[in-house]
Amino acid sequence: MKTDILREVQIIKIGGNVIDDEQELKSFLSKLSRSKVQFILVHGGGKLATQFASKLGIPQELIQGRRVTNAETLRIATMVYAGLINKQIVALLQAFGKDAIGLSGADLNCIRAVKRSGREIDYGFVGDLDSTSVFTEKFDILLQAGMTPVVCAITHDGKGQLLNTNADTIASSLAVAMSRHFRVQLNFCFEKKGVMKDVNDSASVIRSLNLSEYQSLKHEPFIQGGMLPKLENAFDAIGKGVESVFIGHSSEIEQMMSNMNYHGTVITA
Amino acid sequence: MKTDILREVQIIKIGGNVIDDEQELKSFLSKLSRSKVQFILVHGGGKLATQFASKLGIPQELIQGRRVTNAETLRIATMVYAGLINKQIVALLQAFGKDAIGLSGADLNCIRAVKRSGREIDYGFVGDLDSTSVFTEKFDILLQAGMTPVVCAITHDGKGQLLNTNADTIASSLAVAMSRHFRVQLNFCFEKKGVMKDVNDSASVIRSLNLSEYQSLKHEPFIQGGMLPKLENAFDAIGKGVESVFIGHSSEIEQMMSNMNYHGTVITA
Q1: Does B115 lie at the interface with A, CB-CB under 8 angstroms?
Q2: Is B135 part of the contact surface with chain A (CB cutoff 8 Å)?
């Protein structure tokens, strides 16, 4: 079992709304860089990829409301996630004194995915992760050298094909894999204060949630929206070795990482 | 002085024409990945960045025939060089068994540049390198871990600003900096067989060139074209500690690296 002698690493997922706002992103990275605890940052793409695709006249295919990653869309995603956003984040973290290194899953073969098979719907170049996808040794080498990995939502299949993978899924798979060797806290940072019973009432944040509480609440309308996959992901991570999952506002990143004066949601077993 | 106990590293610059051709690029990377010698690959951007800028309707500013990197052009360059091309190369090298890791100069702060001052002409977000720009220790850590760095032509100023830097200059600065601790061979791979007296006559390749030979030839028309900056770069590197510089066709990469059955140009002191 894990003991105090295990090193600690925190996995932080930063969502699209923060990435889209230059000042918010700077403020977030500035706070994050004060962390004394080692961390791996995982970022999504925000609206930039969609904006570029639209400017370039690349049609966005939707099947049953879900986006299809065709070859052109994958190129845009690779440019925006692994290029523009990743390098801007890395350059800012370096300016704030963190020795950041940007990674896609292809770099160091650190996250290998399997192209989703088109049983009923062909989602295109989308990569799914399994329990063997994350090569924790690679992250360990970088962390031991004092480096701060910054991971974008592009993976590969090991055969030369890049793939688009959901950033929340990368964050929780990474957290689960790292928990085999580290004490791991997983933090989902976004533009809300946490899991809220009423999105218009900031006092309605559920401050802590364990599995049995969640099971009694999970059919409530406030969870059935976009929060459901995040919470399923969170409890999955908890069930597989992650110590705790924090869901909260990006401006509270320091309070989240230290769990001091934090006002968002904490998920535990 | 350097002795045999120093480790060897080769710096390889691959030019735009190879990058633009998917089959050529695959073939090149497949050969390169057979190398037993450790190497760092530096790549330019080919025509893709210009194509995207034109599709997006971003005007390309030219002052006295030289391109200006305005903010929009820098975004495109970052997306294409650090995103699309870098990750495609990394994914292919991984498929061929090399543990590649893509880097911009911002990653690990490995190459820090200085924004070119606009004395007479403001070239925009262009970064120049000096003798302190390359942090060799970072490359050393990666090489010691058996990793293969793949460097794109984007650098940073250390204060959060990304910059566009010429890939030939990155390759030679990297070679010079690494030569303080390694035996270094620098290889410029492109679509020609080497330095040629007559570009239409493949038998006209100058097989070897030292500084005094170069000085007697440098005003010849066949050198005064695009070859001049490459050769100035090459002799500069030789003068600063690089053992040899090879200029040749990308299809000869294996012969170039081993200097066996090689038909291109070798530059020595």
Answers
A1: no
A2: no
C-alpha B94/C-alpha B169 separation (Å) is: 26
* Total Cβ atoms within 10 A of residue B228: 12
Q: Do residues B1 and B28 make contact, with C-beta atoms less than 8 angstroms apart?
A: no
A56–chain B Cβ distance below 8 A for any pair? yes
Taking an 8 Å cut-off on Cβ atoms, the answer to whether A79 and B84 are in contact is yes
* Mean pLDDT for all residues in chain A: 93
Inter-chain touch A82–B82, beta carbons under 8 Å: yes
Note whether B76 and B69 are within 8 A (CB): no
In chain A, what is the straight-line distance between the N-terminal and C-terminal CA atoms, in Å? 16
Reported as a single tens digit per residue, the pLDDT across B41-68 is: 999 887 888 899 999 898 887 776 677 8
Region of A108 on the Ramachandran plot (φ > 0 left; ψ -120 to 50 alpha; else beta): left
Q: Which two tokens stand for residue B236?
A: 């500069």
Three-class SS state of A134? strand
Residue A230's pLDDT band, with cuts at 50, 70 and 90, is confident
CB B211 within 8 Å of CB B236: no
Cβ–Cβ below 8 Å for B78 and A83: yes
φ and ψ at B171, to 5 degrees?
-60, -45
pLDDT 10s digits, A100-126: 999 999 999 999 999 998 777 888 999
The interface predicted TM-score of the complex, written ipTM, equals 0.95
Give percent above pLDDT 90 in chain A: 77
Between B211 and A121, whose confidence is greater? B211
Chain B contacts of A100, Cβ < 8 Å?
Answer: 106-108
**A62 is written with which tokens?**
């939707």
- Residue in chain A lying closest to B55 (CA): A56
Question: Residue A235 class from Cβ within 10 Å (0-12 exposed, 13-18 middle, 19+ buried)?
Answer: buried
Q: Is A1's pLDDT higher than 70?
A: no
- Closest approach of A144 to chain B, Cα-based (Å): 11
